[in-house]
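We store sequence with structure; for instance:
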Amino acid sequence: GDKAFAQFLTDEIQEEKKIQKHKSLPKVSGGWELEVHGTEAKLVRKIAGEKITVTFNINNSIPPSAEEDRQEQQKPDEQEPELTSTPNFVVEVIKDDTKQTLVLDCHFPEDEIGHEGEEESDIFTIQEVSFQPAGEADWKDTNYTLNTDSLDWALYDHLMDFLADRGVDNTFADELIELSTALEHQEYIKFLEDLKSFVKCQ
């Protein structure tokens, strides 16, 4: 059984490498620096008096419906449907002269993705906003967290503009999806390779 499993993995790895779009991770325009630790990626950008960081994790970032499509609709000669990784991401804005960080939890609503043609429609939304003490690893649940569901739309628009002024806009979000998808695929191939070594190990 293990031999057949290892053979299957070898074929699968070859297939995945064939459809791999990016041999190296795509860059995000606008002067963002990328740090990757396993499945977590962090983009950092400094502008006058502020540091902006965007963090996301590729685990569980592929919408479940896409995963099902991958398994169901596979006809022998068909290309695998392209999977897109749309992770939740956290934007932190740290002002140099205060001891606070404004934290915005953002996500890609499932029904928004792929609907081109709607002018001005944002491809990501802000879910929660809170202040956290700068430099603290563990955020406090006791800090007030604003959920945007019940938010005045004018305030919400200002928050979106606030992000756009700092380079977090639709273009950025598109590039983040591209980066995350490439990273997810790279990690998936690496996982298959590790699994193959593990199965072959006697």
In short: The domain at 29-70+82-110+120-187 is CATH 3.10.280.10 (Mitochondrial Matrix Protein; Chain A). Confidence is low (pLDDT under 50) at residues 74-78, 113-118. DSSP finds four helices and seven strands in the chain. The radius of gyration is 20 Å.
